[in-house]
Amino acid sequence: MNKIKIIFFGTPFFALHSLKQLINANYNVVGIVTAPDKPKGRGLKLKPSEIKRFAVKKSIPYFQPTNLKDKIFISSLKKLNANLFVVVAFRKLPTIIWQIPKKGTINLHTSLLPNYRGAAPMNWVIINGETETGVSTFFINENIDCGNIIAQKKVKIPNSYNVGFLHDKLMHIGSDILLETVKQIENGIENSIKQTFSNELKNAPKLTKKNCKIEWNNSIEKIHNLIRGLSPYPAAFTKLQNNSKNYILKIYDATPIKSSVKNNYGKIEISNTELIIWALDGYLKINELQISGKKRMKASSFLNGFNFTKNCKIS
Length: 315
Hints:
Blueprint lengths: L4 E6 L2 H12 L3 E6 L4 E3 L4 E3 L2 H8 L4 E2 L7 H9 L4 E5 L6 H4 L6 E5 L7 E2 L2 H7 L4 E8 L9 E8 L6 H25 L15 E2 L4 H4 L7 H10 L6 E7 L2 E14 L9 E3 L4 E4 L3 E10 L5 E2 H7 L7 E2 L1
C-alpha cells in the first residue's frame, strides 16, 4: 500500500471510475465524501450515490454532509490524517476543507483549463461546436476552477459525438490522468502552472431551462450542436402546441440538412415515417424524441401514435 493517504470527494458515476483507479493502484483511500441520499423513482425512496455504494462494498469510511462547514464533519476528516484530498464531480469546497491536507487538494476538470471553467464543461464544448476539449488536474484554491494546473490531455470531439459519448471518453481518460497526477504528487515531481485569464476565454455555466430551449430561428448547425450537447441529459427541448394542448418535446437526436429555402423556421412537416422541423437555413430530421408523459422513442414510433393537427405549432 502506498504511503500517501487520500480522502476522495465525488458523487456521480463519472467519479466512480477515478475512485476505482486509485483503489486498483493500491492507494490508501481512508475516507470518502459524497452527497446525501436523494429521493428517486415513483415512490421517492432515498437512494445512495454510486460512490456511497462502492464505499459500503469496500468498507471505506464515508461521509454525507449537508453542511460542509459542520464542525463535527471537519473534525472527522482531520482525524483520518489524510495528506491529499482528491475531488471529482463534487460541489465547491470551503477553504477550511481544502486547506487541511499537507499535499493539497486536487480536482479533475473536464476541459482544457482555463477554458470552460464552470459546472457543465462537457455540455458547453459541444454546444459551442468545439472540435477539441480535454481534461485537466489542478490544485483547488479559493476561486472555482482557477488553481494551478498540474496536468492536461487533449481529446478530439467527432461531429458524431453527443455529450453522452464525450462523458464516457473523458471518464476513462480523466481517471488515467488523475492517477498520473497523484503519482507525481506522491513522488514530489509535480510542476504546477499558474492559469492565465483573458476576456476571450469561454465559460461553462450551469444548465437551465432557458439555455436548454431550442430557438428555431437559429442555424441548423447551432441547433444540432445544442441537441448533441444536451443528449442524453438534460435534453434540448421545444414547445409543441397541438389543438388546445401544450407539450414539451425533448429532442435527443436529429439529422441537420441544409437548404436554400429561407425564413421557414419553426415550420413542421410530417409524413408517416419522418418528422421535420425547419430552422433558419435548413431543417432537422428528428430521429429520437420524448413528449410529455411518454418514454423516449424513435420518431417513426412516435408518429404512429400521435395525431398532429393542421394548426400545430412549435415554439
